[in-house]
Specification:
Elements (H helix, E strand, L loop, with lengths): L1 H38 L4 H31 L6 H9 L6 H42 L6 E3 L5 E3 L10
Antiparallel strand pairs: 1-2
Helix pairs in contact: 1-2, 1-4
Length: about 160
């Protein structure tokens, strides 16, 4: 009976952790969507604050992952995704815990997708800014080279419009 009670308590702990992770993931997704909106503007202040908030959510998510791994270890499972999936496979097909995990994975997928979109916006903005600076400084295309990461480097900056 004690083993059953312990198992039930651990299952409840797991459920609570997954619920917390889902809440944090939804908050992160909302922050990523807000970030996208701010990236469309020109005011950096709110974006800087949002970045700090986003980092806090990520750290909180990482902490809950550690807690989740601890519960899995107490269940005698490997403290990783495979251990969790092994545990979930032992549950009934429509078990709430399985649904929570699916919802959480889906939300993380949305976060990943939004983060990639935001990264694309940042890359495009950086490219436009670099082109504008090159124009301002009079850098010609043949004066540029590219490094290993694909970023452009200018050999020298002469012919500045600022001197004209």
């Amino acid at each position: 009976m004690t083993a059953t009670l312990d198992m039930r308590q651990l299952e409840q702990s797991l459920s609570h952790l997954l619920e917390g992770q889902q809440t944090l993931a939804r908050q992160l997704l909302e922050l990523l969507c807000q970030e996208y909106q701010l990236l469309q503007g020109t005011e950096p202040g709110p974006l800087n604050n949002l970045t700090l908030e986003k980092q806090r959510r990520i750290e909180e998510l990482e902490q809950t992952v550690g807690d989740l791994h601890g519960v899995l270890g107490r269940l005698g499972l490997s403290p990783d995704r495979q251990g969790l999936e092994k545990f979930l496979c032992q549950l009934e097909p429509g078990a709430p815990l399985r649904e929570r995990w699916r919802d959480f994975e889906q939300t993380l997928g949305q976060c990943r997708q939004q983060n990639e979109i935001n990264g694309g916006v940042l890359t495009l903005s950086r490219r436009h800014l670099s082109n504008a600076l090159d124009l301002l400084y009079g850098v010609k295309a043949e004066q540029k080279s590219y490094g290993r990461s694909g970023q452009s480097h200018t050999s020298h900056r002469t012919g500045s419009l600022g001197r004209a």
